[in-house]
């Protein structure tokens, strides 16, 4: 995926021009954007294409905000995967324009992944959030005994916790730090085990990240456990890129000295940010 019109046409232009009638909207809109002297749009179109290795491009899409997503002829499974990927980024899509089977597959996958909404946490959430912060700390192996109610209250004071709700019930949470030097760090991100696998953490993380960027923050960063492929895939699907890998060594008493426990983490920030 890209917001660069030239990059999109360099990759998928030949595919689109091979069938100009079916791809008329993408061809004409991108041509207008290339020759137009107007300033770049505040919300530029998002483009994407399918390509397996060195094989030719097999399908392409274009999404201009406030318009339905325009999808070239595509197989239903590919359309469903596109919907899932877009939902994971937190992008708002109001409709889809495609062939019948592809449109139906996209719509079904989109409904399944975007059910829910983000809201800022409130004082009435304190007990629930303190429990979730504690559960996150235990899973992450943080030192025991932390006062999670105090941590929750401190973050509530500056709007630093976002709750993801489905049907009015909280299902996931994502926190963030205060902005410092034009940067915020996202975390913790937690979904109870019985509610995982529905994209709730992706929705919460995308909402927190986008809100920070919309507020003028230059850098949004987070840490992810390199031993957890699920969280690594999620954050990179949302647009985060590696900054550095770090090793955390924990010292524990041993009979004849110190024993080292090694944990590897990775710092990430959104693509396109420096």
Low-confidence stretches: none
- List SSEs in N-to-C order: HHEEEHEHEHHEEEHEHEE
Inertia-based shape: elongated
Average pLDDT: 89
Q: What would CATH call the class of the largest domain?
A: Alpha Beta
Radius of gyration: 21 Å
CATH topology of the largest domain: Aminopeptidase
Per DSSP, the total helix count is: 8
Task: Describe the model.
With 274 residues, the protein is α+β, with helices and mostly antiparallel strands. It has eight helices and eleven strands. It folds into two domains: 110 residues; 154 residues, Aminopeptidase. A hairpin with a 6-residue loop joins strand 7 and strand 8. The radius of gyration is 21 Å and the shape is elongated.
Quick tags:
single chain, 8 helices, 7-stranded mixed β-sheet, 4-stranded mixed β-sheet, alpha+beta, 274 residues, 37% helix, Aminopeptidase, 2 domains
Quick overview:
The chain has helices at residues 5-17, 24-35, 76-89, 100-114, 126-140, 148-156, 200-214, 229-237; strands spanning 46-50, 59-63, 69-71, 96-97, 117-120, 161-166, 169-176, 183-190, 219-225, 240-254, 257-270. It has 274 residues and is an alpha+beta fold.
List the helices and strands and how they pair.
Elements: H1 5-17, H2 24-35, E1 46-50, E2 59-63, E3 69-71, H3 76-89, E4 96-97, H4 100-114, E5 117-120, H5 126-140, H6 148-156, E6 161-166, E7 169-176, E8 183-190, H7 200-214, E9 219-225, H8 229-237, E10 240-254, E11 257-270
Parallel strand pairs: 3-4, 8-9
Antiparallel strand pairs: 1-2, 2-3, 5-6, 6-7, 7-8, 9-11, 10-11
């Amino acid at each position: 995926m890209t917001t660069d019109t030239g990059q999109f046409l360099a990759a998928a232009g030949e595919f689109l021009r091979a069938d100009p009638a079916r791809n008329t909207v993408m061809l004409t809109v991108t041509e207008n954007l290339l020759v137009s002297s107007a300033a770049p749009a505040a919300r530029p179109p998002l483009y994407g294409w399918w390509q397996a290795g060195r094989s030719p491009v097999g399908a392409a899409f274009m999404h201009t905000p406030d318009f339905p997503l325009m999808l070239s002829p595509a197989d239903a499974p590919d359309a469903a995967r596109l919907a899932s990927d877009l939902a994971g980024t937190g992008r708002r899509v109001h409709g889809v324009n495609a062939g019948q089977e592809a449109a139906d597959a996209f719509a079904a996958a989109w409904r399944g992944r975007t059910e829910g909404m983000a809201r800022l946490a409130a004082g009435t959430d304190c007990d629930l959030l303190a429990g979730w912060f504690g559960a996150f700390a235990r899973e992450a192996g943080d030192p025991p005994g932390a006062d999670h109610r105090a941590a929750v209250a401190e973050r509530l004071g500056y709007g630093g916790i976002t709750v993801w709700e489905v049907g009015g019930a909280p299902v996931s949470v994502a926190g963030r730090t205060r902005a410092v030097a034009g940067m915020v760090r996202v975390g913790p991100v937690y979904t109870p085990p019985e509610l995982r696998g529905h994209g709730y953490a992706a929705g919460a993380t995308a909402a927190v990240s986008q809100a920070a960027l919309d507020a003028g923050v230059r850098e949004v960063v987070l840490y992810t456990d390199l031993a957890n492929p699920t969280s690594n895939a999620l954050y990179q699907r949302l647009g985060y890129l590696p900054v550095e890998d770090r090793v955390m060594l924990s010292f524990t008493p041993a009979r004849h000295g110190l024993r080292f426990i090694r944990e590897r983490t990775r710092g990430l920030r959104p693509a396109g940010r420096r």
